[in-house]
Write a structure and sequence with these properties.
Blueprint: E1 2-8, H1 28-44, E2 51-55, H2 59-68, E3 80-81, H3 90-98, E4 106-111, H4 115-124, E5 135-140, E6 155-160
Parallel strand pairs: 1-4, 2-3, 2-4
Antiparallel strand pairs: 1-5, 5-6
Helix pairs in contact: 1-2, 3-4
Length: 161
């Protein structure tokens, strides 16, 4: 079974004119929520050499990934950053996912709303509104690759909130 975790970044600084949106950092609550969700996820799953983490390169997303990955025993220096995920339409995020190599069995994608919530709905035909630090866990058949993932081909198994 192929597994996909779609994870929204933790709570970040409020937008203001002194800092670009892309550069906003996590606040303390965002860090705590991210660690709590990571612990919930790791109780329900295992991660191995066939795991890949892809994150938006915006500060708050990469910070969330870097906080969570040690809980999954995933090296933070192996997080693949994809600027294409930042403020992206769900089909643009799907393009990034469709490029994942066939050997990957578990993929974790860190990014932003509304694109992530729309992606979950598109892939599963189930509605899931991902709030900050929430994660959607999806599965799809092992004989299907990430390149073949498209609308209504996955099953929403759980939302970690």
């Amino acid at each position: 079974m192929k597994r996909l975790y779609i994870i929204r970044h933790g709570k970040a600084e409020d937008p203001n004119f002194s800092k670009r949106d892309f550069d906003r950092n996590l606040v303390e609550r965002g860090k705590q929520d991210a660690l709590r969700i990571a612990n919930d996820i790791v109780q329900n799953s295992t991660f191995d050499d066939n795991t890949l983490v892809v994150s938006s390169s915006a500060n708050r997303a990469i910070e969330t990934a870097e906080l969570m990955c040690p809980t999954f025993n995933y090296p933070t220096d192996q997080i693949k950053q994809a600027v294409e995920i930042y403020e992206a339409h769900h089909l643009d995020i799907l393009k990034v996912i469709n490029e994942v190599p066939d050997h990957v069995a578990t993929l974790l994608v860190f990014g932003h709303n509304p694109g992530l919530s729309a992606l979950v709905s598109y892939l599963t035909d189930d509605y899931a509104e991902l709030k900050t630090a929430n994660a959607a866990y999806l599965e799809f058949p092992d004989n299907m690759t990430f390149a073949q993932l498209s609308g209504q081909t996955a099953t929403l198994k759980h939302v970690f909130e």
